[in-house]
Design brief:
Elements: H1 11-25, E1 39-46, H2 48-59, E2 69-70, E3 74-77, E4 83-87, E5 90-91, E6 95-96, E7 100-101, E8 107-108, E9 111-115, E10 121-125, E11 142-143, E12 149-161, E13 169-179, E14 189-198, E15 205-212, E16 225-233, E17 236-242, E18 255-261, E19 272-274, E20 279-280, E21 303-307, E22 310-316, E23 329-334, E24 342-348, H3 356-359, E25 362-374, E26 377-385, H4 392-395, E27 403-411
Antiparallel strand pairs: 1-27, 2-5, 3-4, 4-9, 5-8, 6-7, 9-10, 11-12, 12-13, 13-14, 14-15, 16-17, 17-18, 18-19, 19-20, 21-22, 22-23, 23-24, 25-26, 26-27
Length: 413
């Protein structure tokens, strides 16, 4: 935060005001106010309506090529009032009595769902069918030089002008490119950050552009992928990311932030990366955000929202003695998107669906859905999975679907 100093009168006052204006608009400095109130979550309750809407849509069995479950759930409000929900690994086909999926259901690496302005899920967006006739991913994958699978998981999306000053808007979707890997990389080796462009209002995939690929020679756990959260603020889009130290030895991830000017999110040359004191053009200069005495704080799928004059970060608690994420969601607050971040503050214990604990399910990937904010509250979603028994999520579809909470926010005392 800016240091306050005493100033004189007359010319001195004018010079001081000019200097203050320069500091607040300097493109190489922070954009936060000189001081802010700070927020924390002080209570929560399940949002049964939103959880129930995903269940209703997943169970309706009107089609065999729509969503019955997925994770990586993020959302963006579209200009016409619809909401686009992004999903990573997605199960399709139908749901049988007893909440079971069909044997060997179709699945794709990613999809999207369209919700009406009234809050009703309407359709699933997929890509072109494959050679076997089965549906394809909305954001298609490729293969590496050895023929191994390279896939894309969608992260956060924003609506922005097609180009700076344009009156036409598009949806930009941050993508994580990953490739097959040996344990412990059972969920893929991080490879690159990309951005996809979807048209409006039709939501047709127009392009996928490269943004940043870390040096393949670096250790996979130190590679930073951007997009776990993205927030439009003023003339910038702030894009948050993390490395994946949590894969090895239970270490927490290191959180990072970059930004791009409005209308240039798909332009890699326009991105700037926080280096600890300013914004650098070189991705390799990026530094982890400041969490003060709690550097082992965030998982690699945290979420950030802007509320009033404060920034609010939501993550599963990764600050335990063993550094592993717990079943507790916590928040941090800051006056600037690059921090310093203050916390942690216990936010919620995301409940599992009935039978989830017995099946070994876990909550993860908590995400703000700020477009569904209320008076003094925010909607937060989280995913559920059973990683030690994949058959469990076929026996009970609720064990691989997002669930939702509404968190009450209060000013930090």
């Amino acid at each position: 935060m800016m240091r306050r100093t005493a100033i004189g009168s007359g010319t001195g006052v004018l010079l001081a005001l000019a200097l203050l204006a320069w500091v607040l608009t300097d493109p190489d400095g922070g954009d936060g106010p000189a001081g802010c109130g700070g927020l924390r979550a002080t209570g929560w309750q399940p949002d049964e309506r939103m959880t129930g809407e995903f269940a209703r849509y997943g169970d309706d069995n009107l089609r065999s090529d729509d969503w019955t479950g997925g994770d990586g759930t993020r959302s963006v409000r579209l200009p016409d009032g619809r909401t686009l929900w992004l999903s990573a690994d997605t199960f399709l086909d139908q749901v049988h009595p007893g909440a079971r999926r069909v044997p060997q259901p179709s699945w794709v690496r990613n999809s999207a769902l369209v919700m009406s302005p009234g809050g009703r899920m309407e359709r699933t967006l997929l890509g072109e069918p494959g050679a076997d006739g089965r549906p394809g991913a909305l954001f298609p994958g490729t293969a590496d030089a050895d023929g191994g699978e390279v896939w894309r998981w969608p992260a956060q999306a924003v609506v922005e002008p097609r180009s700076p000053g344009s009156g036409e808007q598009v949806v930009r979707v941050l993508l994580w490119q990953r490739e097959e890997g040996a344990p412990p990389w059972v969920f893929g080796v991080p490879r690159a950050t990309e951005v996809a462009t979807l048209s409006l209002p039709g939501l047709e995939l127009e392009s996928i552009d490269p943004l940043h690929r870390p040096d393949p020679a670096t250790a996979p756990e130190t590679r930073v992928l951007y997009g776990t959260s993205a927030v439009r603020e003023g003339r910038w889009t702030y894009v948050f990311g993390a490395d994946e130290r949590g894969v090895r030895g239970g270490r927490a991830s290191r959180a990072h932030v970059a930004r791009a000017p409005e209308g240039r999110l798909a332009d890699a040359s326009a991105w700037r990366y926080w280096n600890g004191s300013g914004w650098a053009a070189e991705p390799g200069a990026a530094a982890a955000m400041d969490f003060g005495e709690h550097p082992d704080s965030a998982t690699n799928t945290y979420s950030v929202a802007r509320r009033g004059d404060s920034w609010l970060l939501l993550t599963m608690d990764a600050g335990g003695p063993d550094g592993k994420p717990s079943a507790t969601a916590v928040t941090y607050w800051a006056c600037d998107p690059a921090g310093p971040w203050h916390g942690p503050h216990r936010a919620a214990e995301p409940p599992l669906p009935p039978g989830g604990a017995e099946a070994g399910a876990m909550p993860y990937n908590p995400q703000w859905h700020a477009e569904f904010g209320g008076d003094g509250s925010l909607l937060a979603g989280y995913d559920v999975n059973v990683t030690q028994d994949t058959a469990a999520i076929q026996r009970d579809v609720a064990l691989y679907r997002p669930r939702f909470l509404r968190l009450t926010l209060r000013a930090v005392p």
